[in-house]
Write a structure and sequence with these properties.
85 residues; mainly alpha; two-stranded antiparallel sheet; 2 strands; 41% helix
């Protein structure tokens, strides 16, 4: 679910924050598509829901999040157990 005005977008999940380990490849592709959509709006500020204190609220986090999801996908393809993942 999201809400927007001329200069703000708020987005949240009906089921809470998505967790990679509880997702599937399709959901992760959808997550990347949502990040692509946000980036296409050319935001000046992106505030991550979970970030390290002191990190900037930079749009750079969009690509960092996409890469995190891609890294997870790559490892998930070869991991044999949840512990290994």
């Amino acid at each position: 679910m999201s809400s927007s005005s001329k200069d703000r977008i708020w987005s949240w999940s009906k089921s809470g924050t998505p967790m990679l380990a509880e997702s599937n490849p399709q959901k992760r592709r959808e997550w990347i598509a949502a990040l692509d959509k946000i980036e296409s709006l050319k935001p000046r500020v992106v505030i991550a829901g979970h970030k390290r204190p002191g990190n900037e609220d930079s749009p750079r986090i969009l690509e960092e999040t996409r890469q995190y999801i891609r890294d997870f996908d790559g490892i998930a393809e070869t991991a044999r157990t949840g512990r290994e993942l």
